[in-house]
């Protein structure tokens, strides 16, 4: 007979003799089937809430994951049960081999979704090739519908390119095209209704994201507009706003104005965290595995890969990191204080 496992994780795995990988299941029973891979630290914009005007110190190219290393790691994760991979950055579409990376990922058996999060600057030009290579979900960042305000927040020109990218994505049949909008008090909270209106004739999912603390954005709690406040504002204009059903692991609370083609969602990272159903893992551009966006603990998969670790050893290392994942990240006040120290 089997000895009784002492850890909660061991108990969960024994009770749920599921086909899902033990290595990607944490001690709270969360099954991680969604992997975000950062392709680059570089970006062609300088968004005020994201990075300082002068940019950030970049990791030397030799320390970043090569395309081959990205595919090697992706293959491991997919073999263990990852069904969705999202390519992020920096700005992933400035990486010269992005279309090739997508094509390689598309060959991985068991991978159902290849998504890209982009600022949209290069999207219209690259999307036909990306779609052919296998990208089947698109998220585009856009925080304002006012061109002058766009230039102010991103410190660059390019509003028309982003709009062109959004329209190109709808033309190519992406449904919905997700538009990520970080809402900041004193900057764009007065555009909430304009963004909802944007979903009237286009199959968009405009996702209002609560302003979050990150290094370099001089986080100020007063800038945060909570999901409930946003919802109240929108309901005053559209009182018949409908709540839509959502998946357990969804980070978004979704709504729709009746008869509008698209919908809106709220990402409540700060006011109502969704740690309990978190199914996400992240690999940074330099090959570190992060089990929580707000956590500091990272393990370098790049170093193990380059020192010749076998597939079994890598999976074991990944499993140990996932096993250390905490129940939830610190509350929003703690997170913001940490970032300001």
TrEMBL record:
What biological-process terms (Gene Ontology) are attached?
Mo-molybdopterin cofactor biosynthetic process
EC class (word): lyase
- Indicate whether Metal-binding appears among the record's keywords: yes
The record ties this protein, via Gene3D superfamilies, to:
Aldolase class I
Q: Which reaction does it catalyse?
A: GTP + AH2 + S-adenosyl-L-methionine = (8S)-3',8-cyclo-7,8-dihydroguanosine 5'-triphosphate + 5'-deoxyadenosine + L-methionine + A + H(+); (8S)-3',8-cyclo-7,8-dihydroguanosine 5'-triphosphate = cyclic pyranopterin phosphate + diphosphate
Give yes or no: UniProt keyword Signal.
Answer: no
Record pathway:
Cofactor biosynthesis; molybdopterin biosynthesis
Q: Boundaries of each Radical SAM core domain copy? A: 27-240
> Which family is this sequence assigned to?
In the N-terminal section; belongs to the radical SAM superfamily. MoaA family.
* Task of the protein: Isoform MOCS1A and isoform MOCS1B probably form a complex that catalyzes the conversion of 5'-GTP to cyclic pyranopterin monophosphate (cPMP). MOCS1A catalyzes the cyclization of GTP to (8S)-3',8-cyclo-7,8-dihydroguanosine 5'-triphosphate and MOCS1B catalyzes the subsequent conversion of (8S)-3',8-cyclo-7,8-dihydroguanosine 5'-triphosphate to cPMP.
Subunit structure, as described in the record = Isoform MOCS1A and isoform MOCS1B probably form a heterooligomer.
Name recorded for this polypeptide? Molybdenum cofactor biosynthesis protein 1
- Which species? Athene cunicularia
Q: What is the lineage of its organism?
A: Eukaryota, Metazoa, Chordata, Craniata, Vertebrata
């Amino acid at each position: 007979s089997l000895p009784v496992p002492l850890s909660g994780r061991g108990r969960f795995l024994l009770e749920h003799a599921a086909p899902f990988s033990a290595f990607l299941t944490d001690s709270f029973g969360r099954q991680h089937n969604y992997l975000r891979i950062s392709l680059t630290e570089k970006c062609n914009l300088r968004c005020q809430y994201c990075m300082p005007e002068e940019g950030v110190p970049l990791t030397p190219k030799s320390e970043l994951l090569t395309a081959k290393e990205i595919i090697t790691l992706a293959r491991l994760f997919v073999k263990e049960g990852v069904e969705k991979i999202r390519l992020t950055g920096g700005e992933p579409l400035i990486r010269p081999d992005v279309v090739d990376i997508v094509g390689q990922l598309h060959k991985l058996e068991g991978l159902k979704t290849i998504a890209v999060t982009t600022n949209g600057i290069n999207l219209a030009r690259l999307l036909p090739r990306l779609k052919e290579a296998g990208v089947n979900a698109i998220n585009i960042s856009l925080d304002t519908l006012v061109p002058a305000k766009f230039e102010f927040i991103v410190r660059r020109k390019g509003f028309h390119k982003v709009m062109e990218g959004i329209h190109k994505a709808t033309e190519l049949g992406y449904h919905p095209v997700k538009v990520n909008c970080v809402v900041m008090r004193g900057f764009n909270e007065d555009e909430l209704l304009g963004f909802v209106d944007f979903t009237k004739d286009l199959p968009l999912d405009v996702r209002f994201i609560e302003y979050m603390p990150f290094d370099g954005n001089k986080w100020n709690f007063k800038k945060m507009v909570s999901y409930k406040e946003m919802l109240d504002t929108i309901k005053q204009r559209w009182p018949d706003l409908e709540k839509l059903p959502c998946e357990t692991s969804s980070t978004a609370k979704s709504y729709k104005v009746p008869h509008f083609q698209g919908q809106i969602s709220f990402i409540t990272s700060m006011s109502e965290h969704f740690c309990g159903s978190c199914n996400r893992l992240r690999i940074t551009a330099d090959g570190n595995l992060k089990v929580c966006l707000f956590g500091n603990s990272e393990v370098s998969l790049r170093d193990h890969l380059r020192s010749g670790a076998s597939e079994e050893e890598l999976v074991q290392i990944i499993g140990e990191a996932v096993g250390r994942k905490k129940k939830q990240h610190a509350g929003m006040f703690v997170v913001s204080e940490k970032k300001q120290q």
